[in-house]
Amino acid sequence: IFENPALAPVLNLCMQVAQRMNFASLRAKVRQDLSASGNPSGYTVDQYLALALFTALIAAAAGLILDFAIMGGRGLLMTLPLMLFIGFVIPVLVLSGAAQRRIAKISKQLPYTLDLVSLVMAAGSSFTEAVETLIRDNPEDDLNQELRFALSEMEYGSTRAASLANLAERIPLESLRSVVGAVNQAEKLGTPLSSILKLQAEMLRMHRGVRAEKLSASASLKILVPSMLILIAVVMVIAAPLIINFIVTGSWF
Question: How many CA atoms lie within 13 A of 137 on its CB side?
Fold first, then answer.
C-alpha cells in the first residue's frame, strides 16, 4: 500500500505522525505482534502505525459523512473522536489476532517438530542439518519459517544460542522458551541433544494433556449454571398451568 502513488501523500503524512508517536508500550506491542505474526508484508513499526492512522482517517471520514446524513452534523464532537479511535484500534487488534493464531499453530507443531529433529539427529545428522532437512520438506510451516530465520542468523555469524534466543523472543511462547533453554543448557554441558529434544517433546505432550484435563474440568463447572437455569425454566413451564388453575378454581386439577 505504501507503493501506491495515489495514496502516497496521505501515507507520507501518516508516517511523519507515526514517527513522532512516543508510546513505548504501543510500539513494543506492535513490534512483538509483527514478529509473531510472521510479518508477511515486511512492515516496520512506523509503517504499521502509519497504516493504523490511515484507517483512522478513513473511519473518521465515514463517521463524518454518516453524521451529516443522519444528524445534520450535530454529533461531530462525539462521532469524530470515536471513529478515529475505532479506526486506529482495529488494525492493532487485527495484527494481535493474527499473531495469536500463528503462535497457537506453532505451539501445536512444536512437539512434532522436536520429534522429527531428534529422529534425524539420531540417524547421524547435526542439529543444523536436521533442521535444514525439516525446512526443506515443509517450507511453508510457520515454525519451520522461524527456524529458517534462525539458521540464516547463524549463517551470518550469530551463535546457535543467540539465534535460538532470538527465536524465543520473536515467538512469546513459554514452551518454546523452555525448549531453547534446554538446548542451550545441553550445549554447555555436552548432553546428547537428540535425547534432550525427545524428552522436551514428551514433556510438552504431557503438559498439553494436563491442560486439556483442566479445561474439561472447568467446562463441566461452566455448564452447570446454564443447566440449572434450563431445569428451573422447565419446572416453571410445567408448574405454571397448575398454579394458575389453583388460583382461578381453587383446585390443582
Answer: 11
Cell numbers linked to 178: 523452555
* pTM, entire model: 0.77
Scored b (16 or more CB within 10 A) or e, 169-193 reads ebbebebbbbbbebbbebbeeeeeb
CA distance 236 to 230: 10
Q: What type of residue is 228?
A: M
Residue 74 confidence (pLDDT) above 80: no
Residue 43 gets the label, from left (phi > 0), alpha (psi -120 to 50) or beta, of: beta
Summarised one tens digit per residue, pLDDT across range 161-193 is 889 889 989 998 888 888 888 888 887 877 788
Indicate the residue type of 25. Answer: S
Packed helices 76-122 and 142-155: angle between N→C axes, nearest 10 degrees: 70
- Separation between Cα atoms, residue 99 and residue 190, nearest integer Å: 35
